[in-house]
Write a structure and sequence with these properties.
Elements lengths: L5 E2 L9 H7 L9 H17 L6 E4 L3 H12 L5 E6 L2 H12 L3 E6 L8 H10 L3 E7 L1 E2 L4 E2 L3 H9 L4 E5 L11 H4 L3 E5 L11 E5 L1 H4 L14 H8 L10 H17 L1 H22 L12 E5 L6 H10 L2 E2 L1 E2 L8 E5 L6 H17 L8 H13 L1
Parallel strand pairs: 1-12, 3-4, 3-5, 5-8, 8-9
Antiparallel strand pairs: 2-10, 6-7, 9-10, 11-14, 13-14
The protein binds pyridoxal-5'-phosphate.
The site of pyridoxal-5'-phosphate has 13 residues, from α3.
Length: about 375
């Protein structure tokens, strides 16, 4: 029987037809007025996305490249930094910072939970020389949302501290305005809510962060923000850019901006809520106590291996993600960031119910779907 494969993974994500069309075009040369025109347009759209007039830098790399750039360009060897380490990507901040010999205060948090405000206050009280706070606004590995505004307020009160936010699965899902949230460095990547293939990363930096560019003393060559900023202000890049991805980004940003940022955030909120409530109605437990609207992590039922369940879902045409590290085999993750609508939620819940049924669980088919339909009807 024909089965279409549907991607419900938190990166890569399905591409809108406008993006696929842009990617199918003949390449243009990047040292041309034609490219410069598109590049300037893309940078202006990114400014609208983040509601800022400041420079936004693009790198040809996956999201981790921009994470590394955030450490390399705004810190000095030996700087003390606080890492909100609540999952695989929080751990990545810690690894990058340690690799470049920053002094890491590792605030390790149980996976699926968010940080405790009092504990953060305690840590900054204990280490007044903290030069940076690192966090993911949406920790994809645990599908957890971390409030960044509070951290922005704390960071602003410290003598010389910047807030560095991994927004790779929050930008394009929430309204993320760094100037309102007190974010000094914000990074994102192409293959998540920006609805593109992997290969582009984006970096915003505040005025406060900009002052650190000249005093940073960590080794860098490709990921040099000052060098790129100078070039990119002129509509060029220091090295060959991912030309076709930039052209496609222009299309996906067009889609995002024409939907409207408030509407986009509302849509993700409804998709996530419908998924969460449907999953609970089926009798399953959510992984996160502070769930993100970009993806929903769910525990497999007792006695069932989550990866076996995922295999059943794939046989039905639904590709979802599994758990990482100690959550492997225990959870699965359903994405709803980017090019997703209400009907996608109904499909994936139907698929989940059928897969559970096929594992032999005595489940009542259609209960979750009904719940998802109700949530959607209540909100549209
Ligand atoms: C996907 C992701 C990244 C970056 O991963 P890459 O594979 O380098 O693109 C970083 N942080 C979060 C929260 C992510 O979801």
């Amino acid at each position: 029987m024909l089965i279409k494969e549907r991607l419900f993974t938190p990166g890569p994500v399905p591409l809108p037809p406008q993006v696929i069309k842009a990617l199918g075009q003949q390449i243009i040369h990047h040292r041309t007025p034609e490219f410069t025109h598109i590049f300037k347009d893309v940078r202006e759209k990114l400014q609208k996305l983040l509601k800022t007039e400041r420079d936004i830098i693009l790198f040809s790399s996956s999201g981790t490249g921009a994470m590394e750039a955030s450490v390399l360009n705004f810190f000095r060897k030996g700087d003390r930094v606080l890492i909100i380490n609540a999952g695989k990507f929080g751990q990545r901040w810690k690894e990058i910072a340690s690799q470049f010999e920053l002094k890491v205060v590792d605030y390790e948090i149980e996976w699926g939970k968010t940080y405790d405000r009092d504990r953060v206050l305690e840590i900054v009280g204990e280490f007044p020389d903290i030069r940076g706070i690192f966090v993911q606004q949406s920790e994809t590995s645990t599908t957890t949302y971390h409030d960044v505004k509070f951290l922005g307020e704390i960071s602003a009160k410290l003598e010389d501290c910047i807030l560095v936010v991994d927004g790779i699965t929050s930008v394009g899902v929430y309204e993320v305005y760094p100037e309102e949230l007190g974010i000094d460095v914000l990074v994102t990547g192409s293959q998540k809510a920006l609805m593109l293939p992997p290969g582009l990363s984006v970096l915003y930096f505040s005025e406060k962060a900009e002052k650190r560019l000249s005093r940073s003393n960590l080794p860098k060559y490709y990921f040099d923000v000052a060098k790129e900023a100078k070039k990119q202000q002129k509509g060029q890049t220091a090295y060959t850019p991912a030309i076709n991805l930039i052209i496609a980004l222009n299309e996906s940003l067009q889609l995002i901006l024409s939907e409207g940022l408030e509407n986009l955030a509302k849509r993700h909120q409804i998709l996530a809520q419908a998924t969460r409530e449907a999953v609970k109605e089926i009798g399953l437990k959510l992984l996160s106590e502070s769930p993100s609207n970009s993806a929903t992590g769910v525990y497999a039922p007792a006695g069932i291996d989550a990866d076996q369940l995922r295999k059943k879902m794939l046989e039905l045409g639904f590709r979802v993600a599994g758990g990482q590290d100690h959550l492997k085999g225990k959870i699965f993750r359903i994405a709803h960031m980017g090019y997703f609508d209400f009907n996608d939620v109904i499909q994936i819940i139907a698929g989940l119910e059928m897969a559970l049924y096929k594992t032999g669980l005595p489940i009542e088919i259609g209960k979750g779907v009904k719940k998802a339909q109700e949530v959607i009807l209540n909100h549209t």
